[in-house]
Amino acid sequence: FIKLAVDPDNGFSPAIVVFGRVFIGALILIPIAIHDKSFFTAIKGYKYIAVYAFFEMIIPWVLIGTAEQSITSGLAGLLIATVPIFSTLLASWYGDKSVWQPRRLFGMAVGFLGVILLVGIESIIGSTDPVAILMMLGSALGYAFAVIYILRKMPGVSGVAINGIAMAMTA
User: What is the pTM of this model?
Assistant: First the structure.
């Protein structure tokens, strides 16, 4: 869908696509969070949510939309599949050494291989714009960091409320 939405000839700019996604998401999630009263707890951590929104939504979505103008969707998907690898590295850096369990590493390797098989080899050997590849990897790193960050700063707070507020900030 993103590849079509940001098509340089018939699509929208990546910023417009981001706005549309987060505006609709905020319209759906914020009323749910208000109804279940989690919104009021979450809004107290608005500073943390702003950082989360920056790394989870603003930067990745603009980078992905821009990168998909010059690489295949398959390659984009493969590069985004590096999120668990970045998450493992970041979690370890923050002190969680349990991420280095052999079963977990094996599972990541099998999952990454599965993504390669699903998107196909032609996606890997297609357009290899190095800037677009770096944009996708930067997005994956942002996704990994954002989740670890918000879980450390706001443990136990509703994900619906956090994401609703983050989407509203992003819009």
Answer: 0.83
